[in-house]
Amino acid sequence: MAEGFFENPNDLDLDALGHGVVPESCILVDKPVFLVCTHGKRNACCARLGLPLARHLAASLPGEVWETTHVGGDRYAANLVCLPHGLYYGSMSQAAAIAAAHAYRRGEVVLDRFRGRAGIPEPLQAAEHFTRVHTGELSVDGVAVESSWAEGDATVCVVRCTSQRGLSRFRVVVEPTVFSAPCGETCAEAISTYRLAGLSPLMPVST
Predict the structure, then answer these.
(1) Which of 119, 143, 158, 202 has the most CB atoms around it within 10 Å of its CB?
(2) pTM more than 0.70
(3) In degrees rounded to 5, what are phi and psi of residue 14?
């Protein structure tokens, strides 16, 4: 992750950033940064719930919290994004946000209200989440999908789990489903999500 200051947003080459090119005026940093969506134009809940959350979190972690525009999943307001790993949390209370932020600083996730990890398809995020629930593995890098394929509407994943007990793999099957948003008529459309259809350990391959 890199940080820098620009007087004019047009001085920032977004195309280059999208290809991983860091501007010469920026410096690489490894400290965590937390984003809270406070943009109320798309959904008023993000401003109504996100703004007080951002201010409360910033008071606890000064210099590490940024208010931001739409990060996706506005129906899950208040949203919290933990960088640089891109971990997403939704429907956050102030206490839950503090717990998630401090866990991330320790290199861990909190499963309560954890939405998933940016950069991978939604069914794979769900497979990682269900594996964490099953194994109790909370380290940020401890769970990852190695491969996946579609079987009808279902997605089948091979998920690797690395813990203090060693390396294990699981076959995880997730299926799409929907539920209604809980925050009132303005968010009444159904929300797509995934349910666990199967989870079983894979035997290690003999060499």
Answers:
(1) 143
(2) yes
(3) -70, -35
